[in-house]
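Suppose you are handed only these lines of text.
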Amino acid sequence: MDHVKSLKCLICGAEYRPDEIEYVCPKHGDDGIVDVQYDYELIGRRISPATLAENRDTTIWRYRPLLPIEPDSPLPPLTVGWTPLYRADRLAAGLGLKHVWVKDEGRQPSASFKDRASALAVVKAQERGAEVITTSSTGNAGAALSALCASVGQKNVIFVPESAPPAKITQLLVYGSTVILVRGAYDDAFELCAEAAKAFGWYNRNTGYNPYMSEGKKTASYEICEQLTVADLRGLRNLEGLKGWDAPDRIFVSVGDGCVIGGIHKGLKDLMALGWIKAMPKIMGVQAAGSAALYDAWRTGISAMQMTPIDAHTIADSISAGLPADRIKGLAAVRETDGAYIKVTDDEILAAIPALARGSGVFAEPAGAAAYAGLVKAVEQSLVHPDERIVVLSTGNGLKDIASARKSVGEPVVVDKDLAAVKRALGGGRQENK
Ligand SMILES: *Cc1c(COP(=O)(O)O)cnc(C)c1O
Ligand SMILES: [Zn+2]
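From them, the structure of the protein bound to zinc ion can be written out as follows.
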């Protein structure tokens, strides 16, 4: 890993060699989250927009020289990454905007954004020769780790709150993980998992603790900028002279622990350091009103270290976090890019599920639709300009939580096998599912 310079503590600034510490800066207990520092000059000699334009690998591993892994580490076979970035003109028009894209992370192997991080977790754990990998999860991080581990036959133990949606728990069981359902909230599962990892010597993938998870998640930013550029260049033959990519003006992302938004920020910072994009997009973090610790911290201007746990409740289970584990990176993403935090109610999140699906064809779970609900609110509050190029991350597939999706739509019409009944159903004003 000659391209990794150090692991830098985000609290005290101390720097460590990657072989010196496994997870956090030892000076702050478990809170000392570190950030991977790179030698961008070296990386810039190994990879460029032009070489990528010729690269046919459509997984996150196309960006391998930018990832903190050994050059010869084996990679899991599931195709993680390069999810579609759809132009959504009808959605845009409905909001009075000109340029809106939706990135559909529901297309990942385990159907959420978390596969980007778990893919890296599996590579790092295997570099360490770990026998068991563990994580706590609201559901998706676990399902992602479970799937990626199954693809390479890696033993793993997953801690999730008992209340996680059945589809997510089913994924864990089907992929063959050891599943521990915790009577308590996600934050309780997080603590218990961390204790177990220490006691049993397991490799710990926990968000906001393992420094490599944001590094997997940052690949979404590379893809957004590369895909926006490729769309513009379609038909152009000569890509050898391609020096840089187009960045959007704003990216909307839903936030629980703050690792996804931190990863989005990290990817954009990499691209700025390499000179591949010219301006930093503004990052818009969207939180559920019942789980808005980062929104509150941003609005009141306190630091991540001053935050205290809240009692989190939201229908968007994937973004329910009492004390966001990656709060340092989560706050920095918005503050350093001149973005904003936005909060949306559970009703607004539920309404966003069919609105996003009908306007773009992308069916999102509540936490995924929350990002779109945040865009709707940002438009209402005049936080965005109609000409801006806006990307909405749909972080998880709607089939993950059909109970919530069904609450957002009416009931279907049921008829006897009789055409007259169909006629009545079509014309009879009782068509609730419009
Ligand atoms: C995990 C997750 C998020 C939020 O990610 P954090 O890193 O916890 O902020 C958003 N949407 C979905 C679907 C997720 O699984
Ligand atoms: Zn430190």
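What can we learn from it? The chain has a mean pLDDT of 95. The first helix runs from residue 40 to 46.
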